[in-house]
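Please fill in the sequence for the structure shown.

STRUCTURE ENCODING:
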């Protein structure tokens, strides 16, 4: 509580923008009544700020970038894929929980298992020995080992997966979140798990300018539904807050290349100069910024793993330099 927190009822009315004696002082952008406190004869009704409010997808600055959240529909309608039901728990460092029917499989990356039913049996595929498809997967930033978890029981079995770094889980359904016939180009290593029939390959950038200066490298991850296969979806892991913009035809936006998580293959990647020489050297963005030209969706993350690692490393180094206890 601040040291200058008011003590009298009149001061509290002016200090806290609450409902006092059923008389609203202002309209708060929140929706849930949380608790009531009694202070003498003054009854104060406090409205809590939910972790995810009803206006999460509102864009008050009209930027076109909206806070990305899974579709807000019923569990039975939207959270099913290839016979499996799934849900995402938590607000950060999230957990993907899935109910897998007997005989079905969920594929995931190494080290993502959190919990599983005893009927879920784990096997690995060495993609290194799968010819061109395996090489494309590795070039796209994935491990040479893919983990397959199959339900060998006679009824549905559960499994819980979580990213290998502090991250959110982003579900993308082909034919829904991703337009039919389109693929997703993702940052190398963005894939966490998949359900249904999905091809994991690589997208090679043959343009020397974007290859070297756009911040996504030469080989990027390419994800698409298997041709002629069952419906499929992927779960990406991304750090910080996730925002999405659906670009119109020929609409262009300038972004930080390191913060790009994924985009539809209809989006054109480009670069522009970050400014004059002094700006390029000292502005912190390098010599080039990345441009994305529509049509198509672009997904951005506010804290990628490399930026997070750099921030943690800097904090540890500064703490040790100041004489802090290195054993903490």
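FILLED IN BY: designer on duty
SEQUENCE:
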């Amino acid at each position: 509580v601040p040291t200058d927190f008011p003590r009298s009822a009149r001061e509290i009315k002016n200090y806290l923008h609450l409902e006092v004696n059923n008389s609203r002082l202002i309209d708060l952008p929140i929706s849930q009544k949380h608790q009531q406190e009694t202070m003498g004869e003054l009854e104060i009704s406090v409205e809590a700020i939910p972790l995810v409010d009803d206006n999460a997808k509102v864009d008050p600055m009209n930027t076109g970038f909206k806070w990305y959240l899974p579709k807000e529909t019923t569990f039975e309608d939207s959270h099913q894929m290839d016979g499996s039901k799934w849900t995402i728990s938590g607000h950060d460092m999230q957990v993907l929980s899935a109910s897998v029917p007997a005989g079905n499989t969920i594929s995931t990356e190494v080290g993502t298992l959190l919990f599983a039913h005893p009927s879920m049996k784990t096997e690995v595929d060495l993609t290194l020995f799968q010819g061109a498809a395996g090489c494309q997967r590795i070039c796209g930033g994935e491990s040479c080992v893919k983990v397959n978890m199959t339900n060998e029981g006679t009824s549905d079995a559960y499994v819980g997966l979580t990213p290998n770094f502090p991250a959110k889980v982003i579900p993308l359904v082909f034919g829904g979140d991703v337009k039919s016939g389109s693929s997703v180009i993702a940052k190398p290593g963005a894939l966490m798990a998949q359900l249904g029939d999905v091809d994991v390959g690589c997208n090679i950038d043959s343009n020397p300018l974007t290859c070297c200066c756009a911040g996504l490298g030469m080989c990027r991850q390419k994800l698409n539904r298997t041709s002629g296969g069952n419906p499929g979806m992927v779960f990406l892991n991304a750090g910080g807050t996730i925002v999405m913009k659906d670009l119109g035809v020929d609409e262009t936006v300038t972004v930080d290349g390191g913060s790009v998580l994924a985009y539809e293959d209809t989006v054109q990647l480009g670069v522009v100069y970050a400014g004059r020489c002094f700006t390029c050297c000292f502005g912190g963005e390098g010599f080039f910024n990345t441009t994305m030209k529509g049509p198509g969706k672009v997904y951005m993350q506010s804290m990628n793993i490399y930026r997070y690692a750099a921030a943690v490393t800097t904090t540890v180094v500064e703490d040790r330099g100041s004489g802090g206890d290195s054993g903490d």
